Fold this sequence. Notes:
Layout: E1 2-12, E2 15-25, E3 38-40, E4 48-51, E5 56-63, H1 68-81, E6 86-96, H2 98-113, E7 119-127, H3 131-143, E8 149-154
Parallel strand pairs: 5-6, 6-7, 7-8
Antiparallel strand pairs: 1-2, 3-4, 4-5
Helix pairs in contact: 1-2
Amino acid sequence: MVGCHLYFIICHKNQTYFVIVRKLLRKLPTEKEGMNPVLIEATPTTPAINFCTDGRLLIEGRSLPRNVNEFYKPLIEWITNLSVEAVILDVNMEYFNSASEKMLLTLLKSLDANSRIKSLIINWHYEAGDDSVLETGQIFEELLRRVPFRYHEYSETA
């Protein structure tokens, strides 16, 4: 855990007290500390994230967060520290803005560069007729060194 200090000034019976309170801040664990799964529920502006320590990873939904770095940087750090032999990442993005697209590519490059991962597959899901999402996956695949993409087209559900 990483610590920080919070300071409070308390006034009581005409006396002023300066109080230091130590508050522990959560940080993502490193490889040595052991990994914890990452579960984030989808919101209207952020995708659902389900990163399991056994190598099953899922990113699903819409991505247009107000602060894209705040959302994706901890995920990229988690992936950088991931130590498993095989990873299967399912990406099922309904929509993502250009800032999210850049961070997704950074996340994928981090997976690609993680030498502890020996087998890596990306399942890229896209809606029938959504050529933009399909083409983005194809561009990402070309930019990565060793990651095969499997493309899965699905029909819009009512």
